[in-house]
Protein backbone atom coordinates (compact mmCIF):
# COMPACT_ATOMS: atom_id res chain seq x y z
CA UNK A 1 0.00 0.00 0.00
CA UNK A 2 1.35 3.44 -0.90
CA UNK A 3 1.91 5.77 2.04
CA UNK A 4 0.83 9.39 1.58
CA UNK A 5 2.67 11.83 3.81
CA UNK A 6 1.63 15.23 5.07
CA UNK A 7 3.83 17.64 7.02
CA UNK A 8 2.68 19.32 10.20
CA UNK A 9 5.05 22.16 11.04
CA UNK A 10 4.17 24.04 14.21
CA UNK A 11 5.89 26.59 16.42
CA UNK A 12 4.62 26.27 19.99
CA UNK A 13 5.16 28.97 22.60
CA UNK A 14 3.64 29.15 26.10
CA UNK A 15 2.18 32.59 25.56
CA UNK A 16 -1.30 33.69 24.50
CA UNK A 17 -2.75 30.22 24.97
CA UNK A 18 -6.37 29.74 26.08
CA UNK A 19 -6.98 28.03 29.41
CA UNK A 20 -9.05 25.28 27.81
CA UNK A 21 -9.15 23.21 24.64
CA UNK A 22 -10.81 24.73 21.56
CA UNK A 23 -13.91 23.06 20.21
CA UNK A 24 -13.21 22.42 16.53
CA UNK A 25 -16.87 21.52 15.96
CA UNK A 26 -18.13 25.08 16.50
CA UNK A 27 -19.67 26.74 13.42
CA UNK A 28 -20.49 30.37 12.59
CA UNK A 29 -23.08 31.26 9.95
CA UNK A 30 -22.42 34.76 8.59
CA UNK A 31 -25.17 36.73 6.84
CA UNK A 32 -24.26 39.67 4.59
CA UNK A 33 -27.71 41.28 4.33
CA UNK A 34 -28.75 42.03 7.93
CA UNK A 35 -27.13 43.38 11.08
CA UNK A 36 -27.44 40.41 13.45
CA UNK A 37 -25.84 40.30 16.90
CA UNK A 38 -23.39 37.48 17.50
CA UNK A 39 -25.63 34.81 19.02
CA UNK A 40 -25.71 31.11 19.83
CA UNK A 41 -28.82 29.23 18.66
CA UNK A 42 -30.00 25.64 18.97
CA UNK A 43 -32.87 25.80 16.48
CA UNK A 44 -33.83 27.84 13.38
CA UNK A 45 -36.78 29.26 15.31
CA UNK A 46 -34.32 31.02 17.66
CA UNK A 47 -33.53 33.40 14.80
CA UNK A 48 -37.06 34.83 14.99
CA UNK A 49 -36.42 35.99 18.57
CA UNK A 50 -33.24 37.95 17.84
CA UNK A 51 -33.31 41.75 18.03
CA UNK A 52 -32.91 42.42 14.31
CA UNK A 53 -34.42 45.23 12.21
CA UNK A 54 -36.07 44.33 9.92
CA UNK A 55 -36.91 41.12 11.77
CA UNK A 56 -35.77 37.77 10.43
CA UNK A 57 -38.58 35.77 8.83
CA UNK A 58 -38.89 32.14 7.74
CA UNK A 59 -38.48 33.23 4.11
CA UNK A 60 -35.05 34.83 4.68
CA UNK A 61 -32.06 32.94 3.34
CA UNK A 62 -30.36 32.83 6.72
CA UNK A 63 -33.40 31.03 8.12
CA UNK A 64 -33.44 28.53 5.26
CA UNK A 65 -29.68 28.01 5.54
CA UNK A 66 -30.05 27.37 9.27
CA UNK A 67 -32.73 24.77 8.51
CA UNK A 68 -30.28 23.07 6.16
CA UNK A 69 -27.60 23.07 8.85
CA UNK A 70 -29.88 21.53 11.49
CA UNK A 71 -31.34 18.98 9.02
CA UNK A 72 -28.63 16.37 9.47
CA UNK A 73 -28.60 13.17 11.54
CA UNK A 74 -27.24 13.17 14.18
CA UNK A 75 -28.69 16.63 14.63
CA UNK A 76 -26.20 19.44 15.38
CA UNK A 77 -26.67 20.94 18.84
CA UNK A 78 -25.31 24.45 18.33
CA UNK A 79 -24.77 27.17 15.74
CA UNK A 80 -23.37 30.68 16.08
CA UNK A 81 -24.88 33.37 13.85
CA UNK A 82 -23.69 36.86 13.01
CA UNK A 83 -24.59 39.37 10.34
CA UNK A 84 -23.61 42.70 8.84
CA UNK A 85 -25.49 44.49 6.08
CA UNK A 86 -22.44 44.98 3.90
CA UNK A 87 -24.25 47.35 1.56
CA UNK A 88 -25.13 49.90 4.26
CA UNK A 89 -21.97 49.33 6.28
CA UNK A 90 -19.84 49.73 3.12
CA UNK A 91 -17.40 47.07 4.21
CA UNK A 92 -16.15 43.74 2.89
CA UNK A 93 -16.74 40.32 4.41
CA UNK A 94 -13.14 40.29 5.63
CA UNK A 95 -13.60 43.66 7.34
CA UNK A 96 -16.88 42.54 8.93
CA UNK A 97 -15.28 39.40 10.38
CA UNK A 98 -12.29 41.36 11.69
CA UNK A 99 -14.76 43.76 13.31
CA UNK A 100 -16.45 40.82 15.00
CA UNK A 101 -13.10 39.44 16.12
CA UNK A 102 -12.05 42.78 17.63
CA UNK A 103 -15.32 43.47 19.44
CA UNK A 104 -14.68 42.75 23.16
CA UNK A 105 -18.40 42.23 23.80
CA UNK A 106 -18.26 39.03 21.70
CA UNK A 107 -15.39 37.41 23.57
CA UNK A 108 -17.57 35.83 26.27
CA UNK A 109 -19.97 34.23 23.77
CA UNK A 110 -17.47 31.52 22.84
CA UNK A 111 -15.09 30.77 20.01
CA UNK A 112 -15.89 29.32 16.62
CA UNK A 113 -13.82 27.32 14.16
CA UNK A 114 -15.75 26.73 10.93
CA UNK A 115 -17.33 29.51 8.83
CA UNK A 116 -20.35 29.11 6.56
CA UNK A 117 -22.15 31.96 4.81
CA UNK A 118 -25.41 32.96 3.16
CA UNK A 119 -23.68 34.22 0.00
CA UNK A 120 -22.53 32.11 -2.95
CA UNK A 121 -20.70 34.61 -5.16
CA UNK A 122 -17.04 34.87 -6.02
CA UNK A 123 -16.36 38.35 -4.62
CA UNK A 124 -17.66 37.64 -1.12
CA UNK A 125 -16.20 34.12 -0.99
CA UNK A 126 -12.81 35.52 -1.98
CA UNK A 127 -13.03 38.16 0.76
CA UNK A 128 -13.98 35.53 3.37
CA UNK A 129 -11.08 33.36 2.19
CA UNK A 130 -8.66 36.25 2.65
CA UNK A 131 -9.86 36.61 6.23
CA UNK A 132 -9.37 32.91 6.97
CA UNK A 133 -5.88 32.91 5.50
CA UNK A 134 -4.54 35.00 8.39
CA UNK A 135 -7.17 34.60 11.14
CA UNK A 136 -5.93 33.74 14.64
CA UNK A 137 -6.76 31.45 16.21
CA UNK A 138 -6.87 29.43 13.00
CA UNK A 139 -10.23 28.71 11.39
CA UNK A 140 -11.64 27.00 8.29
CA UNK A 141 -14.44 27.87 5.87
CA UNK A 142 -17.03 25.90 3.87
CA UNK A 143 -18.40 27.94 0.94
CA UNK A 144 -20.80 26.94 -1.82
CA UNK A 145 -20.92 27.84 -5.50
CA UNK A 146 -24.05 27.05 -7.52
CA UNK A 147 -24.76 26.64 -11.20
CA UNK A 148 -27.15 29.61 -11.30
CA UNK A 149 -24.21 31.97 -10.66
CA UNK A 150 -21.16 29.95 -11.67
CA UNK A 151 -20.47 27.33 -14.34
CA UNK A 152 -18.30 24.30 -13.48
CA UNK A 153 -15.43 25.73 -15.51
CA UNK A 154 -15.71 29.08 -13.72
CA UNK A 155 -15.85 27.26 -10.37
CA UNK A 156 -12.52 25.55 -11.05
CA UNK A 157 -10.99 28.90 -11.95
CA UNK A 158 -12.26 30.35 -8.66
CA UNK A 159 -10.86 27.42 -6.69
CA UNK A 160 -7.47 27.83 -8.31
CA UNK A 161 -7.48 31.55 -7.52
CA UNK A 162 -8.34 30.88 -3.86
CA UNK A 163 -5.92 27.93 -3.42
CA UNK A 164 -6.26 28.20 0.36
CA UNK A 165 -5.69 25.37 2.83
CA UNK A 166 -8.28 27.05 5.07
CA UNK A 167 -11.11 26.96 2.50
CA UNK A 168 -13.23 24.13 1.09
CA UNK A 169 -15.51 24.89 -1.86
CA UNK A 170 -18.74 23.01 -2.60
CA UNK A 171 -20.73 22.99 -5.85
CA UNK A 172 -24.29 22.09 -6.72
CA UNK A 173 -26.61 22.50 -9.68
CA UNK A 174 -29.66 22.01 -7.41
CA UNK A 175 -30.84 25.43 -6.23
CA UNK A 176 -32.41 24.14 -3.01
CA UNK A 177 -29.36 22.17 -1.86
CA UNK A 178 -26.94 23.78 0.55
CA UNK A 179 -24.14 21.24 0.62
CA UNK A 180 -21.80 23.46 2.63
CA UNK A 181 -24.42 24.00 5.38
CA UNK A 182 -25.37 20.32 5.44
CA UNK A 183 -21.71 19.30 5.56
CA UNK A 184 -20.97 21.66 8.44
CA UNK A 185 -24.05 20.42 10.30
CA UNK A 186 -23.27 16.76 9.66
CA UNK A 187 -19.72 16.98 10.92
CA UNK A 188 -20.57 19.26 13.85
CA UNK A 189 -22.14 16.23 15.49
CA UNK A 190 -19.02 14.06 15.23
CA UNK A 191 -15.91 14.55 17.33
CA UNK A 192 -12.64 14.86 15.45
CA UNK A 193 -11.35 11.45 14.42
CA UNK A 194 -14.82 9.91 14.33
CA UNK A 195 -15.38 10.24 10.59
CA UNK A 196 -13.54 11.35 7.46
CA UNK A 197 -14.91 14.19 5.36
CA UNK A 198 -14.54 12.22 2.15
CA UNK A 199 -16.83 9.57 3.65
CA UNK A 200 -19.65 11.92 4.56
CA UNK A 201 -23.17 10.63 3.93
CA UNK A 202 -25.33 13.74 3.81
CA UNK A 203 -29.07 13.60 4.39
CA UNK A 204 -31.63 15.40 2.24
CA UNK A 205 -29.40 16.10 -0.76
CA UNK A 206 -30.41 15.61 -4.38
CA UNK A 207 -28.46 13.83 -7.07
CA UNK A 208 -26.62 16.48 -9.01
CA UNK A 209 -26.98 16.78 -12.72
CA UNK A 210 -23.26 17.28 -13.22
CA UNK A 211 -21.78 15.38 -16.11
CA UNK A 212 -19.26 12.69 -15.28
CA UNK A 213 -16.63 14.87 -16.95
CA UNK A 214 -17.40 17.84 -14.68
CA UNK A 215 -17.60 15.67 -11.56
CA UNK A 216 -14.23 14.05 -12.25
CA UNK A 217 -12.74 17.46 -13.04
CA UNK A 218 -13.81 18.67 -9.58
CA UNK A 219 -12.49 15.58 -7.81
CA UNK A 220 -9.20 15.22 -9.66
CA UNK A 221 -8.27 18.90 -9.95
CA UNK A 222 -5.14 20.20 -8.25
CA UNK A 223 -7.59 22.73 -6.75
CA UNK A 224 -10.53 20.41 -6.00
CA UNK A 225 -14.18 21.25 -5.39
CA UNK A 226 -16.47 19.11 -3.26
CA UNK A 227 -19.76 17.86 -4.65
CA UNK A 228 -22.32 15.11 -4.13
CA UNK A 229 -21.29 11.82 -5.66
CA UNK A 230 -23.90 9.07 -6.03
CA UNK A 231 -22.29 5.80 -5.04
CA UNK A 232 -23.46 2.21 -5.36
CA UNK A 233 -27.00 1.44 -4.19
CA UNK A 234 -27.85 5.13 -4.55
CA UNK A 235 -25.91 6.26 -1.46
CA UNK A 236 -24.97 9.93 -1.80
CA UNK A 237 -21.52 10.80 -0.51
CA UNK A 238 -19.34 13.89 -0.36
CA UNK A 239 -16.33 13.80 -2.66
CA UNK A 240 -13.40 14.36 -2.58
CA UNK A 241 -13.40 15.90 0.94
CA UNK A 242 -10.58 18.36 0.21
CA UNK A 243 -9.60 21.99 0.65
CA UNK A 244 -9.00 24.19 -2.40
CA UNK A 245 -5.24 23.56 -2.17
CA UNK A 246 -5.77 19.80 -2.45
CA UNK A 247 -5.22 18.81 1.19
CA UNK A 248 -7.77 16.57 2.88
CA UNK A 249 -10.08 18.44 5.24
CA UNK A 250 -9.40 16.03 8.11
CA UNK A 251 -5.63 16.63 7.75
CA UNK A 252 -6.19 20.33 8.39
CA UNK A 253 -8.51 19.58 11.30
CA UNK A 254 -6.00 17.18 12.84
CA UNK A 255 -3.20 19.71 12.46
CA UNK A 256 -5.30 22.35 14.20
CA UNK A 257 -6.28 19.87 16.93
CA UNK A 258 -2.63 18.94 17.42
CA UNK A 259 -1.54 22.58 17.57
CA UNK A 260 -4.17 23.33 20.19
CA UNK A 261 -3.48 20.20 22.26
CA UNK A 262 0.29 20.72 22.34
CA UNK A 263 -0.12 24.43 23.07
CA UNK A 264 -2.26 23.66 26.10
CA UNK A 265 -0.02 20.82 27.31
CA UNK A 266 3.14 22.92 26.90
CA UNK A 267 1.65 25.94 28.65
CA UNK A 268 0.47 23.73 31.51
CA UNK A 269 3.97 22.26 31.81
CA UNK A 270 5.49 25.75 31.93
CA UNK A 271 3.17 26.63 34.81
CA UNK A 272 3.64 23.30 36.60
CA UNK A 273 7.44 23.13 36.32
CA UNK A 274 9.66 25.68 38.05
CA UNK A 275 12.09 25.46 35.15
CA UNK A 276 12.38 23.24 32.10
CA UNK A 277 16.10 22.64 31.60
CA UNK A 278 17.68 22.29 28.16
CA UNK A 279 19.12 18.88 29.00
CA UNK A 280 18.11 15.22 29.19
CA UNK A 281 15.61 15.95 31.97
CA UNK A 282 13.86 18.54 29.82
CA UNK A 283 14.14 16.20 26.85
CA UNK A 284 12.31 13.45 28.77
CA UNK A 285 9.64 15.91 29.90
CA UNK A 286 9.01 17.06 26.32
CA UNK A 287 8.93 13.47 25.06
CA UNK A 288 6.36 12.48 27.69
CA UNK A 289 4.24 15.55 26.93
CA UNK A 290 4.12 14.83 23.17
CA UNK A 291 3.56 11.12 23.80
CA UNK A 292 0.51 11.89 25.97
CA UNK A 293 -0.99 14.15 23.30
CA UNK A 294 -0.48 11.48 20.63
CA UNK A 295 -2.01 8.89 22.95
CA UNK A 296 -5.11 11.07 23.27
CA UNK A 297 -5.23 11.37 19.47
CA UNK A 298 -5.08 7.58 19.25
CA UNK A 299 -7.87 7.22 21.81
CA UNK A 300 -10.01 9.60 19.73
CA UNK A 301 -9.56 7.42 16.67
CA UNK A 302 -7.28 9.79 14.78
CA UNK A 303 -4.08 7.75 14.94
CA UNK A 304 -3.30 4.12 14.41
CA UNK A 305 -1.83 2.29 17.40
CA UNK A 306 -0.40 -1.11 18.17
CA UNK A 307 -1.67 -2.49 21.47
CA UNK A 308 -2.74 1.05 22.32
CA UNK A 309 0.64 2.61 21.48
CA UNK A 310 0.70 5.16 18.61
CA UNK A 311 4.53 4.96 18.69
CA UNK A 312 4.64 1.16 18.47
CA UNK A 313 5.43 -1.10 15.55
CA UNK A 314 3.57 -3.62 13.40
CA UNK A 315 4.61 -6.55 11.28
CA UNK A 316 3.98 -5.90 7.60
CA UNK A 317 2.85 -8.42 4.99
CA UNK A 318 6.49 -9.52 4.51
CA UNK A 319 6.95 -10.26 8.21
CA UNK A 320 9.16 -7.22 8.81
CA UNK A 321 8.57 -5.02 11.92
CA UNK A 322 7.61 -1.48 10.86
CA UNK A 323 7.27 1.56 13.12
CA UNK A 324 3.87 3.24 12.98
CA UNK A 325 5.09 6.27 14.91
CA UNK A 326 8.23 7.87 16.23
CA UNK A 327 9.26 11.11 17.92
CA UNK A 328 12.74 12.47 18.51
CA UNK A 329 13.31 15.39 20.90
CA UNK A 330 16.46 17.34 20.06
CA UNK A 331 18.31 19.12 22.88
CA UNK A 332 20.00 22.26 21.51
CA UNK A 333 23.80 22.28 21.53
CA UNK A 334 25.75 24.93 23.42
CA UNK A 335 26.47 28.05 21.42
CA UNK A 336 23.59 27.57 18.98
CA UNK A 337 20.72 29.95 18.35
CA UNK A 338 18.28 27.31 19.61
CA UNK A 339 20.19 27.15 22.88
CA UNK A 340 20.16 30.92 23.29
CA UNK A 341 16.44 31.08 22.47
CA UNK A 342 15.47 28.12 24.68
CA UNK A 343 14.11 25.90 21.91
CA UNK A 344 13.46 22.17 21.78
CA UNK A 345 12.83 20.69 18.34
CA UNK A 346 10.65 17.62 17.87
CA UNK A 347 10.77 15.55 14.69
CA UNK A 348 9.00 12.33 13.82
CA UNK A 349 5.86 10.85 12.34
CA UNK A 350 2.58 9.20 13.25
CA UNK A 351 0.18 7.10 11.17
CA UNK A 352 -3.47 7.89 10.63
CA UNK A 353 -6.01 5.23 11.45
CA UNK A 354 -6.39 4.05 7.85
CA UNK A 355 -2.64 3.25 7.68
CA UNK A 356 -2.37 4.85 4.23
CA UNK A 357 -1.37 8.32 5.38
CA UNK A 358 1.27 9.57 7.76
CA UNK A 359 1.65 12.87 9.54
CA UNK A 360 5.27 14.06 9.60
CA UNK A 361 5.95 16.19 12.67
CA UNK A 362 8.23 19.24 12.77
CA UNK A 363 7.61 21.02 16.09
CA UNK A 364 9.40 23.93 17.74
CA UNK A 365 8.83 24.24 21.50
CA UNK A 366 10.07 27.43 23.10
CA UNK A 367 10.83 27.48 26.84
Descriptive overview:
The chain has 367 residues and is an alpha/beta fold. Helix content is 31%, strand content 22%. It contains ten helices and 14 strands. The protein has helices at 61-69, 86-89, 93-102, 122-134, 152-162, 179-188, 212-220, 249-272, 280-299, 337-341; strands at residues 4-12, 27-31, 36-41, 79-83, 114-117, 140-146, 167-172, 227-230, 236-239, 313-315, 321-323, 325-330, 343-351, 357-366. A six-stranded mixed β-sheet has the order 3-4-2-5-6-7, sandwiched between helices. Strands 1-14-13-12 form a four-stranded mixed β-sheet. A hairpin with a 5-residue loop joins strand 8 and strand 9 (236-239). Helix 1 crosses helix 6 (179-188) and helix 8 crosses helix 9. The radius of gyration is 22 Å and the shape is globular. The two termini are 40 Å apart. 37% of the residues are buried. The mean pLDDT is 88.
